[in-house]
Design goal:
The chain is mainly alpha-helical and 310 residues long. It has two domains: 105 residues, DNA polymerase, domain 1 (Orthogonal Bundle), CATH 1.10.150; 127 residues, hpI Integrase, Chain A, CATH 1.10.443. 52% of the residues lie in helices and 5% in strands. It has a three-stranded antiparallel beta sheet, with no helix packed on it. β2 and β3 form a beta hairpin. α2 packs across α4 and α6 crosses α10. The longest helix has 20 residues. The chain is globular, with a radius of gyration of 23 Å. The protein starts with 14 loop residues before the first helix and ends with a helix.
C-alpha cells in the first residue's frame, strides 16, 4: 500500500495488522471479494487524505472526506456519502470490538437520506428477445448459458460467474450445483434443465464435456483463459451490447435476480416460495423486495373514480 495505512506497523498497537484483520473478517462474513476491495479502497483513500492514524481521527475528518469530490471532480451523491461513512464506521466498530479504540467518530455524523431506485425485472418476452440477439458462436453460447443460469437459478452475479466444474453434481439426466452465497452461506440446489442444456452446448462449442472437466476449471470458457473463464467485467460489457441490440434499457447483471423473482411470483409461487428460492435470511426481506419490484396494487381507485364521476 502507498497510503498512511502502510505505516500502521510503526505504531505500538499495530494499525496495519488491525486493518488486514478487519478486511479478512469482512470477506469471511460477506463472502464477496468485491465488497472487501471496495472497503479497502475507501479506507486507504480516507487515511491517505487525512494523514492520520485511527486514534487521532475526528468526526470532522470523516465529514470532510465523505462529502469531498472523487477523482472525477464531481460532488459525491448521497449514496456515495453514505457508503463512505458506513465503511469507516464499520472499521471503527471493529477496532472497538478488538479493544483498540474507545469510540466511533462516525456516531456523531448524520447519514444522508437516500431514495432507493426502483428495481425492475424483465418480462418473459423480454428475456426471450434478449436470448434471440445473442449469437450462436462459442462465446455467444457461453453468454446465453450464463443468462439462462442467472434467470433460472436467481443466484447473484459472483455466485454464477464463479461457478466451476466442481460445483456441479451430475445425477443421471439431472444436475445439482453448490454455491457460497452472501454472508458465506452454503447452498445446494438443482440446476434447472434449460440452464444445464445451455451449459452443455456452450462447453461442447469449446470442445469440453462436464464429465471430464477438472473440478477447478471454470464453466464459462474464454478464448484467452479457458481454464479461468470469463471475467465479470467482460460479461457485463457483452450484456450491454445484447440489451441495446434487443431494444431493452441497459441494466446491471443484478436485474436477472429481480427477473427470477418476478417470473416465479408471476407463475403463482408464494412469497415464502420466492424467499426460499432467493435464499433470503428473513421473509420480511423478500416481502419488501417483491413489493418494490411489483409496486403497491391500488384496489380501490375504481370505486373512488365511480364516486367522483370520472
Amino acid at each position: 500500500m502507498t497510503t498512511n495505512i502502510a505505516n500502521f506497523n510503526d505504531t505500538a498497537t499495530g494499525w496495519h495488522r488491525a486493518f488486514y484483520a478487519f478486511l479478512a473478517e469482512k470477506e469471511q462474513r460477506s463472502g464477496s471479494k468485491r465488497t472487501v476491495e471496495g472497503y479497502s479502497r475507501m479506507l486507504q483513500d480516507f487515511f491517505g487524505r487525512s494523514g492520520k492514524q485511527p486514534d487521532n481521527v475526528t468526526s470532522q475528518d470523516i465529514f470532510v472526506y465523505a462529502h469531498s469530490p472523487g477523482l472525477s471532480g464531481k460532488q459525491p451523491s448521497a449514496i456515495t456519502i453514505g457508503a463512505r461513512i458506513a465503511c469507516i464506521s464499520s472499521f471503527f466498530r471493529f477496532l472497538i470490538r478488538m479493544d483498540i479504540v474507545q469510540s466511533n467518530p462516525c456516531d456523531k455524523l448524520q447519514r444522508p437520506r437516500t431514495s432507493p431506485s426502483t428495481p425492475r425485472g424483465l418480462s418473459g418476452d423480454q428475456v426471450h428477445q434478449l436470448l434471440k440477439v445473442v449469437p450462436d458462436s462459442p462465446l455467444g453460447l457461453r453468454d446465453r448459458a450464463i443468462i439462462l443460469t442467472l434467470v433460472m437459478t436467481g443466484r447473484r452475479r459472483a455466485e454464477v460467474i464463479g461457478m466451476k466444474a466442481g460445483n456441479l453434481i451430475l445425477d443421471s439426466d439431472r444436475a445439482y450445483y453448490t454455491y457460497r452465497g452472501k454472508g458465506g452461506k452454503q447452498g445446494h440446489r438443482e440446476l434447472p434443465q434449460p440452464a444445464l442444456n445451455a451449459m452443455r452446448a456452450s462447453l461442447a462449442a469449446f470442445g469440453k464435456d462436464l464429465s471430464t472437466m477438472p473440478p477447478e476449471e471454470s464453466l464459462w470458457p474464454s478464448l484467452s483463459h479457458r481454464s479461468k473463464g470469463i471475467t465479470s467485467g467482460t460479461f457485463y460489457g457483452n450484456l450491454q451490447r445484447y440489451f441495446k441490440k434487443a431494444g431493452i434499457t441497459p441494466s446491471g447483471v443484478h436485474i436477472f435476480r429481480h427477473t427470477a423473482a418476478k417470473l416465479r411470483r408471476d407463475a403463482g409461487e408464494t412469497v415464502e416460495d420466492v424467499s426460499r428460492f432467493l435464499a433470503h435470511s428473513r421473509l420480511a426481506v423478500t416481502t419488501v423486495y417483491l413489493r418494490r419490484l411489483e409496486g403497491e396494487q391500488d384496489k380501490s381507485w375504481a370505486k373512488v373514480a365511480e364516486a367522483i364521476g370520472v
